[in-house]
Amino acid sequence: MARDLLSQLKAMTTVVADTGDLEAIRRFMPHDATTNPSLILQAAQKEERRARLATLARQCTDIDDALDAVAVEIGSEVSELIPGYVSTEVSARLSFDTDATLARARSLIERYARHGVGPERILIKVAATWEGIRAARQLEREGIRTNLTLLFSFTQAQACADAGVTLVSPFVGRILDWHKAHSPEADFSGDKDPGVQSVKRIYEHFKGHGYRTVVMGASFRNVGEILALAGCDRLTISPALLGELADTQGELERRLTTADAETSPPEPLDEAEFRWALNEDAMATEKLAEGIRKFTADQRKLETLLGELRQGT
Questions:
Q1: pLDDT tens readout for residues 94-135
Q2: 10 an active-site residue?
Q3: Is the dihedral of CA 31, 36, 42, 47 positive or negative?
Q4: What are the respective helix, strand and coil percentages of the chain, to the nearest 5?
Q5: Catalytic hit among 46, 125, 207, 287
Q6: DSSP code of 171?
Q7: Bridge-partner residues for 235, per DSSP?
Q8: Is residue 239 within 8 Å of 21, Cβ to Cβ?
Q9: Is pLDDT at 1 greater than 60 in this prediction?
Q10: Which of 106, 138, 145, 188 qualifies as a FRET site for 117, CA 20 to 30 Å off?
């Protein structure tokens, strides 16, 4: 008897909801949930939330305080609906400031504690810049788990694993976007998808070398990318694609295994090597910078919204 693709995927991969939409989380029952500034903005704009957020914003000392309060408020609600992690992002403006990232991450963990959500339930999301990875290394030593996001290259993934981060989020769809824009006539279907290939390489490297860092594919453009990564540790998926998987019957084959895992000794990167390798990768350099700018743009929109709510407009 044919089964839906979502239930089969859950049997081989931990499914994560890429949303702050509580109704979507209730419908698809993911194990974890991830948020980012864009998703928090979407959730904050819902009419049923405005009164609560207005009250919350007026209780805060400034806009930065209000931003974190809203993120933790939504994250705490999400935590009540899932058994696993909730990912909450440090401001993208701090992507190149290790000390400020550390301070903001600790503050978020303290806020969650006041909501009764322990640090074992939270992943602090940090951009996979050199400064972000350094911050994540320190946070992990303090018992604060991290999710390194905006990850587009093997270089970033390798540095994250060397730093002992809990989880990395390689962005599949945005890698595909870049390659399609630069080679519009090329065939990127199925296993030819460069984003899929990137996650597969990272997965095999981590498993071959015994890294404990979890690989979570993110930023999907279509169901085909998800199916091509069946068997990955985790996949974070938008409600629209979760719905498509749930509504589609068929047989799902496990695609990622450790059979082809790399076994050559890893060589940790120092800062100069990391920056040079990232600079040599035009796609990763451009998409990392673009991702930081886009998250910051949505954060500014959220700041405007919260400022209006604080003033009662």
A1: 999 999 999 999 999 999 999 999 999 999 999 999 999 999
A2: no
A3: positive
A4: 60, 15, 30
A5: 125
A6: B
A7: 15, 217
A8: yes
A9: no
A10: 138
